[in-house]
Every structure is written in structure tokens, then in C-alpha cells.
Fold:
Amino acid sequence: MQAKKTSAKSRVEALGNDNYLLRCTISGALRQKLDRLGELLGIATTAAGMVELIERAVDATLKLKDPARPRQQRKAPTPAPAPAPASAPVQQPQRSRAIPAAIKRQVFARAGYCCQFISNNGVACRQRTYLEIDHIHPFSRGGSHHIENLRVLCRGHNQRHAERDFGLDFMQRKHRRNHSKTSAAG
Structure:
């Protein structure tokens, strides 16, 4: 017996109050892409999550492609500062916490886009959402942005390592200070 091939039918129905019912058949490949997008954005691929995923994907595409939307102007390059007189003391450039995008891409690719934490009994985390890049030797203690010093951790395991490296009290104070700044700004 041959499997019956289903045709992809789509339907959009007005429900009122500016809401619509969208019903369609999608391929397994598209479902995998939606699942991956959900992982990257931290959105569950439930029915409600799918609506948010589709809306965010459409917004991002329109932002890039829609000629009717105003584009953000790039800042004009800042002219190089005039050379300092020979008698002026030489200042070292300040280290930037920003990890170059190319290095981030390499670190995420090397990690397979998942948390690299492995427990004491050898169990790997494998979390694929809320991923952060962690400095093995902390940046604040002289650690570099070299690929060998970077790893991918989920937010929970990155926090755990920070508490180990800097202490729970320090991290709680930092969290409260950061939280009060964001609360005051909003």
C-alpha cells in the first residue's frame, strides 16, 4: 500500500479584534529551523511560542529588507587623534571587554552551539538556550579573548563559575547593583 501524499494547504481566517487564525502544513526541515530559532531566542516551541517566533522572524526580516523602513545611519568614522608630542607620556589603550564577533562565532561553532559544562561525574549539560561566552581565566584577572581561554556555558553554569571565582557575596552585590540600574532606567 502506498502512503497517501498530503497537499500543503494554507488558510488564514479573520477572528476579529485584529486577530487571525493561520493554519498551514510545514516541512520537517522548517520545524527544525523553528526549533533551533526557539533555542537561540529562549522561546519554547509551543503554540504560543510559535506565534512569538514567527513575529520576531518577520520583524527581523522587515528590518533588514523593507525599503519603507528607515535605516539607522552609520556613524561617520572618527578621525584619528593627532599624534601626541614626544614629551607626553604614552598611554596604553584600555582593554575592551567586547569579544570580537569572529572569535565569538568560532567559540560557538567549536562548542556545537551548546553548553560545555561537564559535571564531576562526567555528565555534559548540552543546554542550547541562554548561552554565554565564559573566560576560563577571568577577564578581570588578566584573562584574554584568545579562543583557548573561551568556552560556551549556559547562563546557570556561567553564574556558578563566577560565584566560584569571585565568591557568592560579590556576585550577589553585583547582581543587585545591576538590577537597581535597570530598574531605575525603565
Remarks:
- The helical segments are 28-41, 47-65, 101-110, 155-166, 168-185.
- The chain has a mean pLDDT of 80.
